[in-house]
Every structure is written in structure tokens, then in C-alpha cells.
Amino acid sequence: MSLDLLISGGTVLDAVTGASRRADVLIRDGKIAAVGDALDAGGADVYDAAGKTVSQGWMDMHVHLREPGQEHKETIQTGARAAAWGGFTAVACMPNTDPPIATRDVVEFVRKRAEGLAVDVYPIGAVTKGRRGEALAEMADMAAGGAVAFSDDGSPVQHGGLMRRALEYARTVGRPVLGHEEDLTLNPHGHMNEGAVATRLGLPGIPGLAEEAMIARDCLLAEFTGGRFHVCHISTARAVDVVREAKRRGAPVTAEACPHHWALTDEAVETSGYDTNTKMHPPLRTAADVQAIKDGLADGTIDAIATDHAPHAAFEKEVEFIEAPFGILGLETCWGLTVRDLVRPGVLTLAQVVHKLAVAPREILGLDVPTFDVGGAANLTVFDDTTEWTFGREHVRSKSHNTPFVGSPMVGRAWAVVNNGQLVEAD
Ligand SMILES: NC(=O)N[C@@H](CC(=O)O)C(=O)O
Ligand SMILES: [Zn+2]
Ligand SMILES: [Zn+2]
Description:
Number of strands: 19
Strand order of the largest sheet: 3-2-7-17-18-19
Bound molecules: N-carbamoyl-L-aspartate, zinc ion
Number of helices: 13
């Protein structure tokens, strides 16, 4: 923690209160030393933040880092590199690794591998043993080892009774269950959104109903058990309605949306010519669903923005559409799509989206939100909401390159993060 740095000339946005003002931020020994006007660097390096905003560091609560076991797609180190480039100082990583993060030793392995990085890596433990959906994993033991939440992401917890027990256990250890919501009996073999486009393309569809039915079940289970339930990658209008209604009833339910689910529709599968980078879980939906996600973000039904960063190697994605694995990158394109589609058109304010990136994920996971208080560890993101740019392959910092956004216009860039006594600039 030997970082001495003056971030000068920027606008400081407190993601908690939404208040912003022009101020310098002086960091000494990795800690906030002062926030104010015309601060003296006193020998510290100076980062010129003129025209830029400084907020608490952002957190992506849904990424796949592929370690252990699938290091050809991503590693904790390359995933952290992509995260920092995208403006994130923290990520929570899903347990669908090999072996899965389903025991305490793997939780601890992930934490060990992340030591010394500028990005905090919080492992999520599996809900069920081996992610097989049959018996509960040792949730309390994993929580004691540092698991911040539980999820079988990549797969749903199909068995309702098991999900009930999972929420009861999650409640006793004070952590949420993050649900990949998909009733497999309603989606035996789909590859894209069920609807007119899938019919035209001759691809088996994934009905929105499969997602909505399971979200409804789990909202009811959350209400019944008092265990906290969080909806991963919400994608349909009806699903947003179900969550809105559950919240109205006071159920302990939260939700996240991913940029690709508001930036693209299922039309992209057709216009891209069956590009396997338009294939993910849940699938790209319709324009009406996109509108509902924006409405849900705006009215607070959807608490957080998360990316579901899901790297896959080129040789895995460069196959026929129905053979390709589900998932796309997210860390590098999150902010550009957030400003372009939410802030610029006035769907949400800058303060609101930063809250959904810096505050909401940590609150959902029970983590402390960084502050600008003097003496606290400096955990910051430096960004703008004005730079217009085109995303290119050269911007990818992940080990894999599976993104449908190469060539897409973006607005807003993350320029640097400060965390764990380190400054990482987006080069
Ligand atoms: N989102 C995806 O399409 N894929 C994810 C799994 C998941 O998040 O369900 C992956 O691990 O590749
Ligand atoms: Zn999932
Ligand atoms: Zn995922």
C-alpha cells in the first residue's frame, strides 16, 4: 500500500449519496488523505482527471473467471485485467469452474490466486454439491472460507424443495442465493429466444416462460423462507413484472441486468448471420423486453448492472450455432453500453447508473461500500461519460475474444482504477 497519488481536476461523484462536486483526491499510502480544492501533491504523482469523474470503484457481481480448470478461456489474472480496464475494482466470480467452487478449499484457492491484484475477487460458492442439483453443498463451510453468495449459475436449481433448503441455509449464514433462472422442463433444447426470429432461422427456441416461471417460484420461496434471493441476468418483460410484484410484497428479492440484454435483441442472431457471439443464457430477447429492462432499471426493480462476463475460446465458439457454448464477454463493454443506452437517452442519470455499479452489488453481497472518508482505503474508478468511440478487438483485455460488440459505437470510457494500493490505467 505505498501508492501516493493526487487525482487532480476531476469531479468527485459519491455513488452512495449521488452528490458530485469538483475536487481533487489525495491518496497517501493507498489511503484517502484529503478530498478538496487545489490540493498540494506534496511530492505524490499527479493524475490529471480534468473532464473526468471519480467515483467509488465499481463492482461486477457476475463474472466467470474460469479458474480453476478452464484457463484456456480466462484466468483470474486475465479476468482481473479485463475488469480493471472496464473500470471495475471488484468482481464476484461464479463457481462453474472445474472443479467447481463447491467446497471450501476451492473458495480459498480462488482467493489465494487473487492475492496482490488491483481487483478484489470474491468467490461465489455453489448451491449444490458439484453443481449437480441433487444435494446441498457445504454452504456454511464455504461462507466461513469467504464465499460471498451461493449460485449454481450456468444451471438452475431445478428442484424446488432443494431451493427452499438453500434459501433457509443462506439465511442462516446471511448470504444471498443468486439464481440462474430457467425451468429446464420448459426449455429442453433451445438455442435462442423462442419467437418469430427463431422460427424464421429454424433454430429451437428458449421461451421467456422458462425464466419467468422459475423467477416466480423463487420469489415465492424467498418470501416464504426469508432467505435473500437475487435474480441473475434478468431478460424478459414478464420477469421484470414478477420481480416488481415480489418487491411490492416485501419479498427479500433483488435483480441484475446485463448490458447485452438491453443493447441487442434476437434480431442480432439473424443480422449477424448466426454469429455465435449472439448466443448466451438467457438469450437476446425482443424490443419489448429491452424496453421493460430499461423501465425496470429506472424504477429500481432491477437493482444492479452486472456483465455475466463469460469467456470462451475461439475454437469453442467458431462452430455451428447449435454446437456453440452460451456466453459472451462483458467487462470491457459494460460502461460504453451503459452510457450509450441508459445515460445519453435519459433513461437513468449518471448517479443512478454509478449506484447500480458501485453500491448495489456490494449491498446485495453484504460487502462494505468504499467511501471518500479520510483514512479509508482508496477504492476508486476514474471515468467519463462523453468519449465517443468504437469498440474494437484491440480493446479486449480478456484472454478470449467472444463479443458481438466489435465495431459497435460506445459512449463513455473508464480511464483508471485505484485499489489495493495500485493505480491501473486503461492503456
Ligand atoms: N451466460 C452464459 O451464457 N454462459 C455462462 C453461464 C451462465 O451465466 O449461465 C458461462 O459460464 O459460459
Ligand atoms: Zn446464468
Ligand atoms: Zn453467468
